[in-house]
TrEMBL record:
<keyword id="KW-0804">Transcription</keyword>
<keyword id="KW-0805">Transcription regulation</keyword>
<dbReference type="InterPro" id="IPR029016">
    <property type="entry name" value="GAF-like_dom_sf"/>
</dbReference>
<dbReference type="InterPro" id="IPR036388">
    <property type="entry name" value="WH-like_DNA-bd_sf"/>
</dbReference>
<dbReference type="InterPro" id="IPR003018">
    <property type="entry name" value="GAF"/>
</dbReference>
<protein>
    <submittedName>
        <fullName>Transcriptional regulator</fullName>
    </submittedName>
</protein>
<dbReference type="InterPro" id="IPR001867">
    <property type="entry name" value="OmpR/PhoB-type_DNA-bd"/>
</dbReference>
<dbReference type="Pfam" id="PF01590">
    <property type="entry name" value="GAF"/>
</dbReference>
<keyword id="KW-0238">DNA-binding</keyword>
<dbReference type="InterPro" id="IPR016032">
    <property type="entry name" value="Sig_transdc_resp-reg_C-effctor"/>
</dbReference>
<feature type="domain" description="OmpR/PhoB-type">
    <location>
        <begin position="247"/>
        <end position="313"/>
    </location>
</feature>
<feature type="region of interest" description="Disordered">
    <location>
        <begin position="1"/>
        <end position="26"/>
    </location>
</feature>
Length: 430
C-alpha cells in the first residue's frame, strides 16, 4: 500500500509507532540544522516550514518571546474578534482543557497567543518554553509549530514531536486550525490543541478544524452581513479588489479596482475628465476608453450602485484602506496593522492610486517606527513589502527583546551591505 502521509496534513499513519517515528524525525532534524538537507521521513509540509524557518534565521534552540503583558494583553484580548466566540470555544474544548494532559490556545493573526487554558500542571510545563498568553508563536519567530504553521499555510495542520523546529518544543505534539472572518475571509487567528503523542491522530486534527468552523459560524451569527445597500471594498495587498455588495462578492478587474478605489475616496463623485487624469499616465488615452470601462463596470454593479454626472457610488463604502487611515488618525497603530494586508493595489500604475498607496504605507510605517513596538515592527519587517525596509529593520533591532536580536542584526547587516550603507549611518525612521 502506498504511504500517503506525505500527501496528508496528518502527522502519523495508523499503526506507526510514535517513539520510533520521533527518533527518526530527530535524526532528520539534526541533518537539516547541521547540513541543510531534508531527509525521510519528513513530510513536505514540515520540510517547507523548516526551510521558511531557516530563511527567517530562527534558532533551533531558545524560547518564544513574550510581547504582550498585563494591560496590553488585556486590551488585545478585549478588542479581538475572537473574544466574542471564546465561550463557544471553551464549551467545545472543555474536555481537553480540563483533562490534565492538553492545552487549548487561541492566537491572533500575528501568532501571538491571547488565551492559553488547561490544567495548571500542564500550563506550568508549557510555560517553561514560553507557551503562555502574550508570547509570539508565529512561524517566522519560533519556527515550525502548529498555530504558527497553520497561519503560514492558512489551513489545519498537525505538528508531531521533532517536526517542531525548536528543540525545546519537540516533546510536544499539537494540532491547529485557522479561523477567518466569515464576511470578508480575513484571517483572524487560530485555535490550537497542544499535548502529548496522542494528539498525532486524525481525530484531533478533525476536531480542531470543527472548532474553528464552529467559531466562524458563531461569528457569522453575531455579526450578520452588511445591509444590501452597504458596500465593502478590499484593495490592500491585492491587485484585483474584492467588492461585497448586496450579498454578492465580486472580484474586480485591475482597472475596475482602480476606479472603485477612486470613487470610494470621493463620495461626492468625479467627472469623466477627473477620472481620466487620475487613472492614466498617458494623456493620449481617449475618453471613449474610460467610458467603455465605466459602462462595463455599471453592468457589473448595476445602475443602482454606480451613478453618473458625476460618476459616484450611491451607497456608503467600507474600504479597508480607509479603515487603516482612520485608525492611524486616532493613534490606534496596532488596530491599523490588523487591517493592513499589504500595499494598496500594489501593481497599479494609476497616478492617484500610486500616490495613495505611498502615502498610506509611509504613514503606517512612520507610526510603527515611532511606536517602537517589537511585535508590530516584526509584522512589517517579515512581510513581503517590509523585507528590505532598512529603517524598520533598524528600529526592530533597537526595540526587540534580547532573545531575538541576533537574527535581526544579521538581517540588518545583509541589508546594509546590499544597499552599500555603513551600519548605523542612517537613523531608524530617517
Amino acid at each position: 500500500m502506498t504511504d500517503r502521509r506525505d500527501e496528508s496534513w496528518v502527522a502519523l499513519d495508523a499503526g506507526t509507532d510514535p517513539s520510533e517515528h520521533s527518533g527518526r524525525l530527530r535524526r532528520a532534524h539534526e541533518q537539516f540544522t547541521t547540513a541543510g538537507r531534508v531527509t525521510r521521513p519528513v513530510r513536505p509540509l514540515v520540510a517547507a516550514s523548516w526551510q521558511r524557518s531557516a530563511r527567517a534565521r530562527v534558532s533551533p534552540d531558545g524560547a518564544a518571546c513574550v510581547e504582550l503583558a498585563d494591560e496590553d494583553l488585556a486590551a488585545c484580548r478585549d478588542g479581538h474578534p475572537l473574544a466574542r466566540v471564546m465561550p463557544l470555544i471553551r464549551e467545545l474544548t472543555g474536555a481537553y482543557a480540563g483533562d490534565g494532559e492538553h492545552l487549548v490556545a487561541v492566537c491572533d493573526a500575528q501568532g501571538r497567543l491571547l488565551w492559553v487554558e488547561g490544567h495548571p500542571r500542564i500550563r506550568g510545563a508549557a510555560g517553561r518554553m514560553n507557551f503562555v498568553p502574550g508570547a509570539r508563536w508565529a512561524e517566522s519567530a519560533v519556527g515550525t509549530n502548529a498555530p504558527g504553521t497553520a497561519l503560514a499555510e492558512d489551513r489545519p495542520v498537525q505538528v508531531f514531536s521533532a517536526e517542531h523546529f525548536r528543540r525545546p518544543v519537540q516533546r510536544w505534539t499539537c494540532a491547529a486550525a485557522p479561523v477567518h472572518d466569515p464576511r470578508t475571509g480575513r484571517l483572524l487567528g487560530a485555535v490550537d490543541l497542544t499535548g502529548g503523542d496522542g494528539l498525532a491522530h486524525p481525530h484531533s486534527l478533525g476536531f480542531v478544524q470543527a472548532v474553528a468552523r464552529a467559531a466562524e459560524s458563531e461569528l457569522a451569527l453575531l455579526a450578520p452581513p452588511p445591509a444590501p445597500e452597504a458596500i465593502a471594498l478590499g484593495a490592500l495587498g491585492r491587485d484585483e479588489a474584492l467588492l461585497v455588495a448586496g450579498g454578492r462578492k465580486l472580484r474586480l478587474s485591475r482597472r475596475h479596482s482602480e476606479i472603485l478605489v477612486l470613487l470610494a475616496r470621493h463620495p461626492e463623485g468625479l467627472t469623466g475628465d477627473e477620472l481620466l487624469v487620475a487613472l492614466y499616465e498617458d494623456e493620449a488615452v481617449s475618453p471613449v476608453t474610460l467610458r467603455a470601462e465605466l459602462s462595463r463596470l455599471r453592468r457589473l454593479l448595476g445602475p443602482e450602485l454606480l451613478a453618473s454626472r458625476p460618476y459616484r457610488l450611491t451607497a456608503p463604502v467600507d474600504a479597508d484602506f480607509d479603515t487603516v487611515a482612520r485608525r492611524l488618525g486616532s493613534g490606534a497603530v496596532a488596530a491599523a496593522m490588523t487591517v493592513y494586508a499589504g500595499p494598496l493595489l500594489p501593481g497599479s500604475q494609476a497616478p492617484v492610486v500610486a500616490r495613495l498607496r505611498r502615502r498610506l504605507a509611509d504613514q503606517l510605517r512612520a507610526a510603527l517606527i515611532a511606536r517602537a513596538d517589537p511585535g508590530l515592527l516584526a509584522d512589517w519587517a517579515y512581510s513581503p513589502w517590509g523585507a528590505e525596509d532598512l529603517p524598520v529593520w533598524q528600529a526592530l533591532a533597537t526595540a526587540l527583546p534580547g532573545c531575538q536580536q541576533a537574527a535581526v542584526r544579521f538581517k540588518l547587516r545583509e541589508l546594509t551591505a546590499e544597499l552599500g550603507l555603513a551600519t548605523g549611518s542612517q537613523r531608524p525612521g530617517a
